[in-house]
Amino acid sequence: MKKTLNIDPQLLHEAKQACGAPSETETVRRGLEALVRHAAYQRLRLLRGSEKRAPDVPRRRIQEAAKY
Length: 68
Description:
Blueprint: H1 9-19, H2 24-47
Helix pairs in contact: 1-2
């Protein structure tokens, strides 16, 4: 999809350097993905402690024995 955006050139340059993207399009894509991840994280954070009777869950996955 093509869109016309007005982006500050200095901000785009700094973002491109910060994320190591090879192109301006990739820079914008990575930035949008980061924004979506952050919003999802914030929504999950708001739920923290909202279920009073929830059992405690292990924080790390238990490694299963490798099947050969």
